[in-house]
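Key result, reporting period 2: structure in, sequence out.
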């Protein structure tokens, strides 16, 4: 029997080296070696605080429990109860993995084993996550959250509800209705634009853009809403970025937000009026945010109306800089982005975007005469 077990262990050790979660599984499996032997010699086992009726059933049950645990909203509750029982130490986490390894030794298929081990590693990391506290390690939290699929990230949202990308309607130009456009029709941009009215913190997309200030440490308006929804750990990562200049953009994890990333940009202050400097800075905000998104493989991005609130940039002027900049970026990089969402909060902004979008994304080739 011991021989068979060792053979199974060698098989797992012989799994090809990979990067990412599977390599972590291998590493954790190796680290569980000593614990594994220890478990194997025990006659009875404790799984999740309850004795298993037999070692075989116990280990298979453990694998199943881990599987369902990581994909349901019970994760937090389980975590709290295991915290209370003091089972969150790395030693306890290795114990879980060792138990899963024994399941394999006793006949679980390699694929099932690898899946269970993978889930087990994720679960072990999940046990450390607390998005309601400012005390956690933001790097570890970020690494963990970014390793999850959208579905597995959902239990960690701090918002009461979220809006998935497929529920955000695509904007389409209506033929022949508007003023002549100075832009050519570009079919490649069809299905890539949305105007969404509401709270940007609800959007379950790859990245939302924040209208931040130069400190990146939070503020009022949409900045305040994003920090509140993401949780206090967002500020920790923001502090590590050492501020941001006007027109530039920096990216962080979304933490408790449904959005995977937050791209922070600083718009121009336009209380004294809009000149070339403000126009250029606003365009830079949008261009640099889109560039940051594509550099991080974010394919869906939502923008609030940057600078048009507390910073005083008139919306009716901003909309033209915004639509022209996004159009030019999409012309050059449409293959890297699936959707750009203009998230408007005020009814007048919704109207402005719907009115002006056909000028930048015409339905037909209605080129404005140069005469
Ligand atoms: N979702 C979407 N849009 C929103 C939301 C929301 N939850 N809340 C407000 N808006 P502002 P700014 C809209 O003032 O002008 C902060 O203190 C809002 O209606 O948030 O760039 C920063 O720390 C408006 O249309 O950003 C800076 O100090 C738009 O978001 C300063 O404000 C932008 O308004 C930045 O000022």
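The corresponding designed sequence is given below.
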């Amino acid at each position: 029997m011991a021989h068979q077990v060792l053979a199974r262990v060698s098989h797992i050790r012989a799994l090809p080296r990979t990067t990412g979660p599977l390599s972590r599984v291998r590493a954790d499996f190796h680290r569980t070696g000593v614990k594994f032997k220890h478990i194997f010699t025990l006659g009875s086992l404790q799984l999740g605080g309850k004795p298993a009726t037999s070692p075989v059933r116990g280990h298979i049950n453990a694998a199943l429990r881990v599987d369902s645990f990581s994909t349901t909203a019970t994760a937090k509750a389980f975590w709290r109860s295991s915290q209370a029982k003091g089972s969150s130490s790395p030693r306890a986490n290795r114990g879980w993995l060792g138990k899963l390894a024994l399941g394999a030794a006793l006949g679980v298929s390699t694929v099932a084993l690898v899946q269970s081990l993978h889930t087990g590693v994720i679960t072990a990391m999940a046990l450390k996550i607390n998005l309601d506290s400012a005390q956690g390690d933001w790097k570890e939290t970020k690494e963990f959250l970014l390793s999850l699929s959208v579905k597995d990230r959902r239990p960690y949202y701090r918002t009461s509800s979220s809006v998935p990308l497929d529920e955000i309607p695509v904007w389409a130009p209506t033929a022949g209705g508007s003023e002549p456009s100075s832009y050519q029709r570009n079919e490649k941009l069809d299905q890539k634009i949305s105007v969404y009215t509401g709270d940007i913190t609800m959007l379950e997309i790859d990245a939302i853009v924040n209208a931040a200030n130069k400190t990146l440490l939070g503020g009022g308006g949409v900045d305040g809403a994003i920090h509140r929804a993401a949780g206090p750990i967002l500020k920790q990562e923001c502090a590590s970025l050492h501020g941001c200049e006007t027109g530039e953009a920096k990216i962080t994890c979304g933490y408790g937000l449904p959005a995977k990333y937050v791209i922070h940009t600083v718009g121009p202050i336009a209380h004294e009026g809009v000149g070339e400097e403000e126009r250029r800075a606003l365009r830079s905000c949008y261009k640099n945010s889109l560039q940051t998104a594509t550099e991080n493989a974010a394919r869906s991005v939502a923008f609030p109306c940057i600078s048009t609130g507390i910073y005083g940039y008139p919306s009716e002027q901003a909309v033209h800089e915004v639509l022209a900049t996004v159009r030019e970026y999409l012309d050059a990089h449409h293959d890297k982005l699936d959707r750009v969402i203009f998230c408007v909060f005020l009814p007048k902004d919704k109207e402005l975007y719907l009115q002006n979008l056909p000028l930048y994304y015409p339905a037909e080739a209605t080129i404005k005469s140069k005469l």
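The beta strands are 46-47, 50-51, 163-164, 193-197, 203-204, 207-212, 249-253, 261-266, 300-303, 339-344. Confidence is low (pLDDT under 50) at residues 1-97. This case is discussed further under Risks and Mitigation.
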